[in-house]
Design goal:
This protein is of the alpha+beta class. 47% of the residues lie in helices and 10% in strands.
Length: 547
Protein backbone atom coordinates (compact mmCIF):
# COMPACT_ATOMS: atom_id res chain seq x y z
CA UNK A 1 0.00 0.00 0.00
CA UNK A 2 1.36 3.42 -0.96
CA UNK A 3 0.71 6.20 1.55
CA UNK A 4 1.01 9.96 1.03
CA UNK A 5 1.59 10.83 4.68
CA UNK A 6 3.01 9.04 7.69
CA UNK A 7 1.24 8.89 11.04
CA UNK A 8 3.86 9.26 13.78
CA UNK A 9 1.43 9.23 16.71
CA UNK A 10 0.86 5.52 17.11
CA UNK A 11 4.51 4.68 16.45
CA UNK A 12 5.70 7.22 19.00
CA UNK A 13 3.40 6.16 21.81
CA UNK A 14 3.83 2.43 21.19
CA UNK A 15 7.60 2.96 21.28
CA UNK A 16 7.26 5.04 24.45
CA UNK A 17 5.26 2.25 26.11
CA UNK A 18 7.85 -0.33 25.13
CA UNK A 19 10.60 1.94 26.42
CA UNK A 20 8.96 2.39 29.82
CA UNK A 21 8.47 -1.34 30.16
CA UNK A 22 12.22 -1.82 29.77
CA UNK A 23 13.27 0.65 32.49
CA UNK A 24 13.64 -0.25 36.13
CA UNK A 25 11.46 2.42 37.80
CA UNK A 26 11.63 2.67 41.60
CA UNK A 27 8.39 1.75 43.38
CA UNK A 28 6.59 4.51 45.27
CA UNK A 29 4.75 3.05 48.24
CA UNK A 30 3.47 6.07 50.15
CA UNK A 31 2.70 9.78 49.94
CA UNK A 32 5.94 10.64 51.70
CA UNK A 33 7.95 9.17 48.86
CA UNK A 34 5.83 11.05 46.32
CA UNK A 35 6.45 14.34 48.13
CA UNK A 36 10.17 13.52 48.26
CA UNK A 37 10.25 13.13 44.47
CA UNK A 38 8.51 16.46 43.80
CA UNK A 39 11.63 18.62 43.89
CA UNK A 40 12.28 21.49 41.51
CA UNK A 41 14.97 19.66 39.45
CA UNK A 42 12.76 16.62 38.99
CA UNK A 43 9.73 18.72 38.04
CA UNK A 44 11.92 20.61 35.56
CA UNK A 45 13.06 17.37 33.94
CA UNK A 46 9.46 16.16 33.66
CA UNK A 47 8.34 19.43 32.06
CA UNK A 48 11.20 19.32 29.55
CA UNK A 49 10.31 15.75 28.61
CA UNK A 50 6.65 16.68 28.18
CA UNK A 51 7.66 19.59 25.95
CA UNK A 52 9.79 17.31 23.77
CA UNK A 53 6.93 14.82 23.49
CA UNK A 54 4.46 17.55 22.59
CA UNK A 55 6.77 19.19 20.07
CA UNK A 56 7.46 15.96 18.26
CA UNK A 57 3.85 14.86 18.48
CA UNK A 58 2.32 17.96 16.92
CA UNK A 59 4.99 19.06 14.49
CA UNK A 60 4.69 18.15 10.82
CA UNK A 61 7.78 17.43 8.83
CA UNK A 62 6.67 18.37 5.34
CA UNK A 63 10.29 18.17 4.18
CA UNK A 64 10.10 14.93 2.19
CA UNK A 65 7.58 15.09 -0.59
CA UNK A 66 8.26 11.56 -1.81
CA UNK A 67 5.90 8.57 -1.94
CA UNK A 68 6.15 6.17 0.99
CA UNK A 69 6.27 2.41 0.47
CA UNK A 70 4.74 0.74 3.48
CA UNK A 71 6.30 -2.55 4.59
CA UNK A 72 3.89 -5.44 4.20
CA UNK A 73 6.48 -7.75 5.72
CA UNK A 74 7.67 -5.96 8.85
CA UNK A 75 10.95 -7.88 9.15
CA UNK A 76 11.80 -8.23 5.44
CA UNK A 77 12.12 -5.23 3.16
CA UNK A 78 12.67 -7.09 -0.12
CA UNK A 79 9.09 -6.70 -1.30
CA UNK A 80 8.99 -3.04 -0.30
CA UNK A 81 12.15 -2.29 -2.29
CA UNK A 82 10.91 -4.23 -5.30
CA UNK A 83 7.54 -2.46 -5.20
CA UNK A 84 9.13 0.96 -4.85
CA UNK A 85 11.55 0.47 -7.75
CA UNK A 86 8.76 -0.88 -9.98
CA UNK A 87 6.27 1.92 -9.23
CA UNK A 88 8.71 4.82 -9.00
CA UNK A 89 11.60 4.04 -11.39
CA UNK A 90 12.48 7.72 -11.91
CA UNK A 91 11.67 9.12 -8.49
CA UNK A 92 13.02 8.70 -4.98
CA UNK A 93 10.72 6.91 -2.56
CA UNK A 94 10.86 6.34 1.16
CA UNK A 95 10.65 3.21 3.30
CA UNK A 96 9.20 3.47 6.80
CA UNK A 97 12.01 2.76 9.20
CA UNK A 98 14.22 4.47 11.75
CA UNK A 99 15.96 6.20 10.21
CA UNK A 100 13.51 6.95 7.43
CA UNK A 101 15.38 6.04 4.23
CA UNK A 102 15.03 7.76 0.89
CA UNK A 103 15.78 5.22 -1.85
CA UNK A 104 17.20 7.03 -4.88
CA UNK A 105 16.44 5.96 -8.47
CA UNK A 106 18.92 3.56 -10.04
CA UNK A 107 19.40 6.03 -12.89
CA UNK A 108 21.06 8.51 -10.51
CA UNK A 109 23.71 6.15 -9.21
CA UNK A 110 26.52 8.04 -10.93
CA UNK A 111 25.59 11.08 -8.84
CA UNK A 112 27.24 9.38 -5.88
CA UNK A 113 30.66 10.14 -7.39
CA UNK A 114 30.21 13.82 -6.57
CA UNK A 115 29.05 13.23 -3.00
CA UNK A 116 31.79 14.08 -0.52
CA UNK A 117 31.88 13.61 3.25
CA UNK A 118 30.82 17.26 3.49
CA UNK A 119 27.64 16.71 1.47
CA UNK A 120 26.61 13.08 2.04
CA UNK A 121 28.54 11.13 4.66
CA UNK A 122 28.72 7.37 5.09
CA UNK A 123 30.50 7.64 8.44
CA UNK A 124 27.86 9.99 9.87
CA UNK A 125 25.16 7.56 8.76
CA UNK A 126 26.95 4.77 10.64
CA UNK A 127 27.28 6.98 13.70
CA UNK A 128 23.53 7.57 13.65
CA UNK A 129 22.77 3.91 13.02
CA UNK A 130 24.93 2.69 15.92
CA UNK A 131 24.12 5.67 18.18
CA UNK A 132 27.75 6.72 18.55
CA UNK A 133 26.74 9.60 20.82
CA UNK A 134 25.76 6.89 23.32
CA UNK A 135 27.90 3.87 22.41
CA UNK A 136 31.00 5.57 20.86
CA UNK A 137 30.80 2.96 18.07
CA UNK A 138 32.10 4.45 14.83
CA UNK A 139 33.55 7.45 16.61
CA UNK A 140 36.64 8.26 14.53
CA UNK A 141 36.14 11.81 13.33
CA UNK A 142 39.87 12.58 13.55
CA UNK A 143 40.50 10.08 10.72
CA UNK A 144 43.33 8.20 12.45
CA UNK A 145 41.74 4.78 12.11
CA UNK A 146 40.73 5.22 8.46
CA UNK A 147 44.21 6.54 7.67
CA UNK A 148 45.86 3.49 9.24
CA UNK A 149 43.61 1.09 7.32
CA UNK A 150 44.14 2.86 4.01
CA UNK A 151 47.84 3.67 4.32
CA UNK A 152 49.43 1.23 6.75
CA UNK A 153 47.39 -1.97 6.49
CA UNK A 154 46.18 -2.03 2.88
CA UNK A 155 49.61 -1.12 1.48
CA UNK A 156 51.28 -3.93 3.39
CA UNK A 157 48.82 -6.70 2.55
CA UNK A 158 51.24 -8.46 0.21
CA UNK A 159 53.86 -8.72 2.94
CA UNK A 160 51.30 -9.96 5.50
CA UNK A 161 49.96 -12.85 3.40
CA UNK A 162 52.08 -15.34 5.36
CA UNK A 163 50.64 -14.07 8.64
CA UNK A 164 47.08 -14.48 7.35
CA UNK A 165 47.81 -18.05 6.23
CA UNK A 166 49.48 -18.95 9.54
CA UNK A 167 46.46 -17.81 11.49
CA UNK A 168 43.93 -19.43 9.14
CA UNK A 169 45.66 -22.80 9.58
CA UNK A 170 45.92 -22.29 13.35
CA UNK A 171 42.25 -21.29 13.44
CA UNK A 172 41.09 -24.39 11.57
CA UNK A 173 43.20 -26.61 13.83
CA UNK A 174 41.93 -25.00 17.03
CA UNK A 175 38.27 -24.92 15.93
CA UNK A 176 38.01 -28.33 14.26
CA UNK A 177 40.87 -30.39 15.67
CA UNK A 178 42.06 -33.57 13.90
CA UNK A 179 38.54 -34.34 12.54
CA UNK A 180 39.64 -37.46 10.67
CA UNK A 181 35.99 -38.53 10.71
CA UNK A 182 32.98 -36.39 9.85
CA UNK A 183 32.61 -33.84 12.64
CA UNK A 184 29.52 -31.62 13.05
CA UNK A 185 30.19 -27.95 13.71
CA UNK A 186 28.06 -24.83 13.96
CA UNK A 187 29.68 -22.89 11.15
CA UNK A 188 29.24 -19.18 11.90
CA UNK A 189 30.77 -19.13 15.42
CA UNK A 190 33.76 -21.15 14.16
CA UNK A 191 34.33 -18.82 11.19
CA UNK A 192 33.93 -15.78 13.47
CA UNK A 193 36.68 -17.15 15.71
CA UNK A 194 39.00 -17.82 12.74
CA UNK A 195 38.40 -14.30 11.39
CA UNK A 196 39.04 -12.88 14.87
CA UNK A 197 42.33 -14.77 15.06
CA UNK A 198 43.41 -13.49 11.64
CA UNK A 199 42.38 -9.89 12.37
CA UNK A 200 43.91 -9.98 15.84
CA UNK A 201 47.21 -11.30 14.52
CA UNK A 202 47.36 -8.42 12.05
CA UNK A 203 46.13 -5.67 14.38
CA UNK A 204 47.59 -6.75 17.74
CA UNK A 205 50.12 -9.49 17.01
CA UNK A 206 50.98 -12.63 18.94
CA UNK A 207 50.74 -13.75 21.66
CA UNK A 208 47.92 -11.34 22.55
CA UNK A 209 45.93 -12.18 19.40
CA UNK A 210 45.57 -15.80 20.55
CA UNK A 211 44.40 -14.88 24.04
CA UNK A 212 41.05 -16.66 24.46
CA UNK A 213 39.68 -13.86 26.64
CA UNK A 214 40.52 -11.30 23.96
CA UNK A 215 38.97 -13.45 21.22
CA UNK A 216 35.76 -13.96 23.18
CA UNK A 217 35.53 -10.28 24.12
CA UNK A 218 35.99 -9.20 20.49
CA UNK A 219 33.27 -11.56 19.28
CA UNK A 220 30.93 -10.53 22.12
CA UNK A 221 31.35 -6.90 21.12
CA UNK A 222 30.56 -7.70 17.49
CA UNK A 223 27.31 -9.42 18.48
CA UNK A 224 26.32 -6.86 21.10
CA UNK A 225 26.97 -3.87 18.82
CA UNK A 226 24.27 -5.18 16.49
CA UNK A 227 21.97 -5.89 19.43
CA UNK A 228 22.41 -2.32 20.70
CA UNK A 229 21.68 -0.91 17.25
CA UNK A 230 18.46 -2.90 16.96
CA UNK A 231 17.36 -2.30 20.57
CA UNK A 232 17.86 1.48 20.54
CA UNK A 233 16.09 1.75 17.18
CA UNK A 234 12.93 0.54 18.93
CA UNK A 235 13.07 3.33 21.53
CA UNK A 236 11.92 6.92 20.85
CA UNK A 237 14.97 8.81 19.66
CA UNK A 238 14.15 11.81 21.85
CA UNK A 239 14.86 9.74 24.98
CA UNK A 240 17.66 7.40 23.88
CA UNK A 241 20.59 9.33 25.30
CA UNK A 242 18.75 10.52 28.41
CA UNK A 243 17.61 7.03 29.41
CA UNK A 244 20.50 5.01 27.99
CA UNK A 245 22.02 4.26 31.44
CA UNK A 246 18.91 2.21 32.22
CA UNK A 247 19.15 -0.04 29.15
CA UNK A 248 20.71 -3.45 29.69
CA UNK A 249 22.18 -3.46 26.17
CA UNK A 250 24.11 -0.26 26.91
CA UNK A 251 25.37 -1.60 30.23
CA UNK A 252 26.55 -4.73 28.44
CA UNK A 253 28.44 -2.87 25.70
CA UNK A 254 30.33 -0.74 28.23
CA UNK A 255 31.17 -3.80 30.33
CA UNK A 256 32.66 -5.41 27.23
CA UNK A 257 34.70 -2.27 26.54
CA UNK A 258 36.00 -2.34 30.09
CA UNK A 259 37.05 -5.99 29.71
CA UNK A 260 38.79 -5.25 26.40
CA UNK A 261 40.62 -2.23 27.83
CA UNK A 262 41.97 -4.31 30.72
CA UNK A 263 43.30 -6.93 28.29
CA UNK A 264 45.11 -4.52 25.97
CA UNK A 265 46.32 -2.06 28.64
CA UNK A 266 49.68 -3.80 29.32
CA UNK A 267 50.57 -3.71 25.63
CA UNK A 268 49.55 -0.06 25.29
CA UNK A 269 51.46 0.98 28.41
CA UNK A 270 54.56 -0.90 27.29
CA UNK A 271 54.48 0.70 23.86
CA UNK A 272 53.98 4.22 25.22
CA UNK A 273 56.84 3.68 27.65
CA UNK A 274 59.21 2.90 24.77
CA UNK A 275 57.78 5.31 22.22
CA UNK A 276 60.22 8.03 23.18
CA UNK A 277 63.30 6.08 22.12
CA UNK A 278 61.76 5.05 18.80
CA UNK A 279 61.40 1.37 19.65
CA UNK A 280 58.25 -0.63 19.09
CA UNK A 281 57.02 -2.86 21.85
CA UNK A 282 57.49 -6.51 20.96
CA UNK A 283 57.17 -9.81 22.75
CA UNK A 284 59.94 -12.32 22.15
CA UNK A 285 60.72 -10.80 18.78
CA UNK A 286 57.19 -11.21 17.44
CA UNK A 287 55.16 -8.57 15.64
CA UNK A 288 53.03 -7.43 18.58
CA UNK A 289 52.44 -3.69 18.79
CA UNK A 290 53.23 -2.64 15.19
CA UNK A 291 49.66 -1.72 14.27
CA UNK A 292 49.17 0.04 17.61
CA UNK A 293 52.31 2.05 16.88
CA UNK A 294 50.89 3.17 13.52
CA UNK A 295 47.55 4.07 15.10
CA UNK A 296 49.11 6.06 17.94
CA UNK A 297 51.41 7.89 15.52
CA UNK A 298 48.39 9.06 13.51
CA UNK A 299 46.28 10.02 16.53
CA UNK A 300 45.97 13.63 17.73
CA UNK A 301 48.67 14.21 20.39
CA UNK A 302 46.12 14.94 23.10
CA UNK A 303 44.52 11.51 22.63
CA UNK A 304 47.69 9.42 22.79
CA UNK A 305 47.68 7.30 25.89
CA UNK A 306 43.90 7.60 26.29
CA UNK A 307 43.06 3.94 26.82
CA UNK A 308 39.31 4.53 26.40
CA UNK A 309 39.83 6.24 23.06
CA UNK A 310 42.13 3.45 21.86
CA UNK A 311 39.61 0.86 23.04
CA UNK A 312 36.85 2.53 21.02
CA UNK A 313 39.08 2.68 17.94
CA UNK A 314 40.18 -0.95 18.16
CA UNK A 315 36.70 -2.28 18.88
CA UNK A 316 35.23 -0.28 15.99
CA UNK A 317 37.87 -1.82 13.74
CA UNK A 318 37.22 -5.24 15.25
CA UNK A 319 33.49 -4.95 14.61
CA UNK A 320 33.94 -3.83 11.00
CA UNK A 321 36.41 -6.63 10.30
CA UNK A 322 34.83 -9.54 12.16
CA UNK A 323 31.16 -8.87 11.45
CA UNK A 324 31.15 -8.42 7.69
CA UNK A 325 34.02 -10.81 6.92
CA UNK A 326 32.56 -13.64 9.01
CA UNK A 327 29.15 -13.28 7.40
CA UNK A 328 30.58 -13.19 3.86
CA UNK A 329 32.83 -16.22 4.46
CA UNK A 330 29.97 -18.17 6.06
CA UNK A 331 27.68 -17.48 3.10
CA UNK A 332 30.39 -18.59 0.66
CA UNK A 333 30.96 -21.87 2.53
CA UNK A 334 27.22 -22.59 2.56
CA UNK A 335 27.31 -22.05 -1.21
CA UNK A 336 30.27 -24.41 -1.62
CA UNK A 337 28.39 -27.15 0.22
CA UNK A 338 25.26 -26.46 -1.84
CA UNK A 339 26.80 -26.12 -5.31
CA UNK A 340 29.40 -28.84 -5.03
CA UNK A 341 30.19 -28.87 -8.74
CA UNK A 342 32.42 -25.82 -8.15
CA UNK A 343 34.64 -27.49 -5.54
CA UNK A 344 36.83 -29.51 -7.99
CA UNK A 345 37.09 -26.49 -10.32
CA UNK A 346 38.34 -24.28 -7.51
CA UNK A 347 40.71 -26.92 -6.11
CA UNK A 348 42.21 -27.45 -9.57
CA UNK A 349 42.71 -23.71 -10.00
CA UNK A 350 44.52 -23.44 -6.66
CA UNK A 351 46.81 -26.36 -7.50
CA UNK A 352 47.54 -24.98 -10.98
CA UNK A 353 48.59 -21.61 -9.57
CA UNK A 354 50.73 -23.28 -6.91
CA UNK A 355 52.43 -25.38 -9.59
CA UNK A 356 53.10 -22.26 -11.65
CA UNK A 357 54.29 -19.96 -8.83
CA UNK A 358 55.70 -22.52 -6.44
CA UNK A 359 54.96 -22.54 -2.73
CA UNK A 360 56.67 -22.80 0.62
CA UNK A 361 56.34 -25.64 3.11
CA UNK A 362 56.28 -24.97 6.85
CA UNK A 363 57.89 -27.21 9.47
CA UNK A 364 54.55 -28.93 10.12
CA UNK A 365 54.14 -29.77 6.42
CA UNK A 366 51.48 -27.15 5.70
CA UNK A 367 51.91 -25.09 2.54
CA UNK A 368 52.18 -21.32 2.16
CA UNK A 369 51.23 -19.49 -1.02
CA UNK A 370 53.64 -17.10 -2.68
CA UNK A 371 52.84 -13.38 -2.67
CA UNK A 372 52.13 -13.42 -6.41
CA UNK A 373 49.54 -16.20 -6.24
CA UNK A 374 46.48 -14.71 -4.56
CA UNK A 375 45.45 -12.38 -7.46
CA UNK A 376 45.53 -15.34 -9.87
CA UNK A 377 42.60 -17.24 -8.35
CA UNK A 378 40.11 -15.82 -10.83
CA UNK A 379 37.48 -18.56 -10.49
CA UNK A 380 37.57 -18.34 -6.70
CA UNK A 381 37.20 -14.57 -6.98
CA UNK A 382 34.16 -15.02 -9.22
CA UNK A 383 32.59 -17.56 -6.88
CA UNK A 384 32.95 -15.18 -3.94
CA UNK A 385 31.44 -12.28 -5.86
CA UNK A 386 28.48 -14.39 -6.97
CA UNK A 387 27.93 -15.56 -3.40
CA UNK A 388 27.83 -11.93 -2.29
CA UNK A 389 25.47 -11.00 -5.14
CA UNK A 390 22.97 -13.67 -4.14
CA UNK A 391 23.40 -13.14 -0.37
CA UNK A 392 24.51 -9.51 0.08
CA UNK A 393 25.16 -7.98 3.47
CA UNK A 394 22.38 -5.48 2.84
CA UNK A 395 19.46 -4.96 0.46
CA UNK A 396 20.55 -1.36 -0.08
CA UNK A 397 23.96 0.19 -0.67
CA UNK A 398 25.72 3.55 -0.71
CA UNK A 399 24.06 4.62 2.52
CA UNK A 400 24.66 8.28 3.28
CA UNK A 401 23.49 10.88 5.76
CA UNK A 402 22.95 14.02 3.69
CA UNK A 403 24.77 16.85 5.45
CA UNK A 404 23.84 19.61 3.00
CA UNK A 405 20.97 19.85 0.52
CA UNK A 406 21.55 17.80 -2.64
CA UNK A 407 19.90 17.86 -6.04
CA UNK A 408 19.89 14.56 -7.95
CA UNK A 409 20.33 14.47 -11.71
CA UNK A 410 16.57 13.84 -11.94
CA UNK A 411 16.00 17.26 -10.36
CA UNK A 412 14.77 15.94 -7.01
CA UNK A 413 15.91 17.82 -3.91
CA UNK A 414 17.27 15.66 -1.08
CA UNK A 415 17.20 17.82 2.07
CA UNK A 416 19.90 17.98 4.69
CA UNK A 417 19.38 15.36 7.39
CA UNK A 418 18.01 12.73 4.99
CA UNK A 419 19.32 9.16 5.03
CA UNK A 420 19.89 8.23 1.38
CA UNK A 421 20.55 4.83 -0.21
CA UNK A 422 20.34 2.90 -3.48
CA UNK A 423 18.39 -0.34 -4.17
CA UNK A 424 21.33 -2.71 -4.65
CA UNK A 425 19.16 -5.83 -4.16
CA UNK A 426 17.19 -4.91 -7.27
CA UNK A 427 20.34 -4.00 -9.17
CA UNK A 428 21.94 -7.39 -8.46
CA UNK A 429 18.80 -9.23 -9.54
CA UNK A 430 17.75 -7.11 -12.52
CA UNK A 431 20.91 -5.60 -14.06
CA UNK A 432 21.23 -6.54 -17.73
CA UNK A 433 25.02 -6.13 -17.53
CA UNK A 434 25.29 -9.20 -15.28
CA UNK A 435 23.59 -11.62 -17.66
CA UNK A 436 24.63 -12.59 -21.16
CA UNK A 437 23.04 -15.51 -22.94
CA UNK A 438 25.60 -18.17 -23.70
CA UNK A 439 28.05 -16.86 -21.11
CA UNK A 440 26.16 -16.79 -17.82
CA UNK A 441 23.16 -18.33 -16.15
CA UNK A 442 20.04 -16.17 -15.58
CA UNK A 443 20.18 -13.84 -12.59
CA UNK A 444 17.73 -15.97 -10.61
CA UNK A 445 20.28 -18.82 -10.69
CA UNK A 446 23.55 -19.15 -8.79
CA UNK A 447 26.45 -19.02 -11.24
CA UNK A 448 29.83 -19.32 -9.55
CA UNK A 449 31.63 -18.52 -12.81
CA UNK A 450 29.39 -15.60 -13.78
CA UNK A 451 32.04 -12.92 -13.29
CA UNK A 452 34.85 -15.16 -14.54
CA UNK A 453 33.03 -15.52 -17.86
CA UNK A 454 32.04 -11.84 -18.03
CA UNK A 455 35.71 -10.89 -17.65
CA UNK A 456 36.50 -12.93 -20.75
CA UNK A 457 34.48 -10.51 -22.90
CA UNK A 458 36.37 -7.74 -24.76
CA UNK A 459 36.94 -4.70 -22.56
CA UNK A 460 36.12 -6.51 -19.32
CA UNK A 461 39.55 -7.81 -18.32
CA UNK A 462 39.84 -5.40 -15.38
CA UNK A 463 36.19 -5.47 -14.31
CA UNK A 464 33.98 -7.68 -12.14
CA UNK A 465 36.49 -8.53 -9.43
CA UNK A 466 35.40 -9.19 -5.86
CA UNK A 467 36.71 -5.80 -4.72
CA UNK A 468 35.57 -3.92 -7.85
CA UNK A 469 33.23 -0.95 -7.53
CA UNK A 470 30.81 -0.18 -10.36
CA UNK A 471 27.13 0.77 -10.83
CA UNK A 472 26.26 -2.96 -10.81
CA UNK A 473 28.80 -3.85 -8.10
CA UNK A 474 28.14 -1.88 -4.92
CA UNK A 475 29.17 -4.27 -2.15
CA UNK A 476 32.14 -2.13 -1.12
CA UNK A 477 30.66 1.19 -2.17
CA UNK A 478 31.07 3.38 -5.23
CA UNK A 479 32.48 6.82 -5.81
CA UNK A 480 34.83 8.58 -3.43
CA UNK A 481 33.85 6.83 -0.17
CA UNK A 482 34.88 3.26 -0.95
CA UNK A 483 35.41 0.81 1.90
CA UNK A 484 39.09 1.20 2.87
CA UNK A 485 39.23 -2.35 4.24
CA UNK A 486 37.96 -4.15 1.14
CA UNK A 487 41.38 -5.50 0.13
CA UNK A 488 42.00 -6.87 3.62
CA UNK A 489 38.57 -8.55 3.62
CA UNK A 490 39.32 -10.00 0.17
CA UNK A 491 42.57 -11.57 1.39
CA UNK A 492 41.11 -12.85 4.66
CA UNK A 493 38.16 -14.60 3.03
CA UNK A 494 40.24 -16.12 0.23
CA UNK A 495 42.85 -17.45 2.66
CA UNK A 496 40.07 -19.11 4.69
CA UNK A 497 38.45 -20.67 1.62
CA UNK A 498 41.79 -21.86 0.23
CA UNK A 499 42.58 -23.65 3.50
CA UNK A 500 39.13 -25.26 3.40
CA UNK A 501 39.33 -26.30 -0.26
CA UNK A 502 42.84 -27.74 -0.05
CA UNK A 503 42.61 -29.65 3.21
CA UNK A 504 39.00 -30.33 4.17
CA UNK A 505 35.86 -32.06 2.94
CA UNK A 506 32.56 -30.40 3.77
CA UNK A 507 28.91 -31.42 3.58
CA UNK A 508 25.58 -30.68 5.20
CA UNK A 509 24.50 -33.15 7.92
CA UNK A 510 21.74 -34.61 5.73
CA UNK A 511 23.99 -34.87 2.65
CA UNK A 512 25.67 -38.21 3.36
CA UNK A 513 26.26 -38.87 -0.34
CA UNK A 514 27.75 -35.38 -0.82
CA UNK A 515 25.33 -34.52 -3.62
CA UNK A 516 24.78 -30.90 -2.64
CA UNK A 517 21.66 -29.09 -3.72
CA UNK A 518 20.42 -25.54 -3.28
CA UNK A 519 17.42 -26.80 -1.31
CA UNK A 520 19.79 -28.00 1.43
CA UNK A 521 21.32 -24.56 1.91
CA UNK A 522 20.40 -22.88 5.22
CA UNK A 523 17.95 -20.08 4.49
CA UNK A 524 19.04 -16.49 4.84
CA UNK A 525 17.41 -14.42 7.56
CA UNK A 526 16.23 -11.04 6.26
CA UNK A 527 15.88 -8.42 9.00
CA UNK A 528 14.75 -5.12 7.54
CA UNK A 529 17.61 -4.19 5.18
CA UNK A 530 20.02 -6.82 6.53
CA UNK A 531 20.61 -10.21 4.93
CA UNK A 532 22.08 -12.58 7.51
CA UNK A 533 23.13 -16.22 7.20
CA UNK A 534 21.64 -18.83 9.48
CA UNK A 535 24.09 -18.45 12.36
CA UNK A 536 22.95 -21.66 14.07
CA UNK A 537 23.19 -23.98 11.06
CA UNK A 538 25.61 -26.90 11.14
CA UNK A 539 27.92 -28.42 8.56
CA UNK A 540 30.13 -31.48 8.81
CA UNK A 541 33.88 -31.27 8.21
CA UNK A 542 36.50 -33.95 7.69
CA UNK A 543 40.21 -33.42 7.28
CA UNK A 544 41.47 -35.05 4.09
CA UNK A 545 43.68 -38.09 4.60
CA UNK A 546 46.55 -36.70 2.56
CA UNK A 547 46.85 -33.51 4.67
Amino acid sequence: MILKKRNHSFLMFSSLSAMLMNINIPRISDLGQIYHLLTVPRITVVLVLLFVIGYNFFRRSGRLNFPVVENREEADYRLAIREGVAKFPNSPFTISDDPLFVVAPKSTISDIKSFTQDSASFSKHLQYLFHSNITNIGEHEDGALISVIRNDISRQLVTTLGILQDEAIFGFDSCFGPSRDWTPVTLYPAIAKIVTLISGRLFLGRPLSRNEELINTSIKFTIQATNVRDALAKRPKWFRKFLSPFYEEIKSIFNIKKEFAEIIRPMIDAHLAKEGDGKLYSDEGDEQGKFIACLIDRMPPEKRGNIQYLTNQLLSLSFASIHTTSITATQAIYDLASYREYIPLLVDEIKEVMAEDGYDTADDGSVRLRKTSLPKFLKLDSFLKESQRVSPLSLVALRRLVTSDLILSTGHLIPKGTHLCYPSWEIYNESTTLYLDGYTKPLNKFDGLRYYNLRRLPGNANRYYFVSAAPDSLQFGYGNQLCPGRFLANNQIKVILIELLLNWDIRFPDDVKMEGGAWRRPKNNFVKFDCRPDMKASVELRRRKNT
